[in-house]
Amino acid sequence: MTAKSLLIEQIEQLAEPVLQEHGAELVLVEFLHGHGAWVLRFFLDKPEGITLDDCARISEHLGRILDASNVIPQSYSLEVSSPGVYRPLRKEKDFERFKGERVDINLYAPINGRRHYRGTIEGVAEGTVQVKDVAQQVFSLPLSGIAKAKLNPEIKI
């Protein structure tokens, strides 16, 4: 485990009680360095959707907890936001929750020469997610082989 992934794990452990208190779910944590500054970014969600007011309250609470812990040695900016409509899917429960929704999936290694899949989540079983493409072909993709997955909703204007 790298030092950065260990730090992310510690941050997630510190954040967990705060998120539970606010009824929020952790979607993703990023700790990035760019343009000469560090940014700690939390993407959060709630079953009914997360609001700007939720993000502000949680950000203030997380900031106090993280500052008091001194787990992050350098200065950083804290950002708390919604994952957006192209929400990343990381855990089995994410795929279960969004069954029937459109998704884009990239694999670490190709299956039958293919690494990218786009379709509808049909289900999750025994460590695999079933995705049906536009040709109605169903693919069983191992959750452990998924490098990146995100919702790809059909947006009608």
Features:
157 residues, alpha+beta, GMP Synthetase, Chain A, domain 3, SH3 type barrels, 2 domains, 5-stranded antiparallel β-sheet, 3-stranded mixed β-sheet, 3 helices, 8 strands, 39% strand, globular
Explain briefly what this protein structure is.
The protein has 157 residues and is α+β, with helices and mostly antiparallel strands. It is built from three helices and eight strands; from the N terminus they run αββαβαβββββ. α1 crosses α2.
Structure commentary:
This protein is α+β, with helices and mostly antiparallel strands. The chain folds into two domains: 3-81, RimP-like superfamily, N-terminal (GMP Synthetase, Chain A, domain 3); 92-151, Roll (SH3 type barrels). Helix content is 27%, strand content 39%. The protein has three helices and eight strands; from the N terminus they run αββαβαβββββ. The protein has helices spanning 3-21, 52-69, 92-97; strands spanning 25-34, 37-45, 77-81, 102-111, 114-125, 128-132, 138-142, 146-151. The strands form two sheets. It has a five-stranded antiparallel sheet. A three-stranded mixed sheet has the order 1-2-3. β5 (114-125) and β6 (128-132) form a beta hairpin.
Topology:
Layout: H1 3-21, E1 25-34, E2 37-45, H2 52-69, E3 77-81, H3 92-97, E4 102-111, E5 114-125, E6 128-132, E7 138-142, E8 146-151
Parallel strand pairs: 2-3
Antiparallel strand pairs: 1-2, 4-5, 4-8, 5-6, 6-7
Helix pairs in contact: 1-2
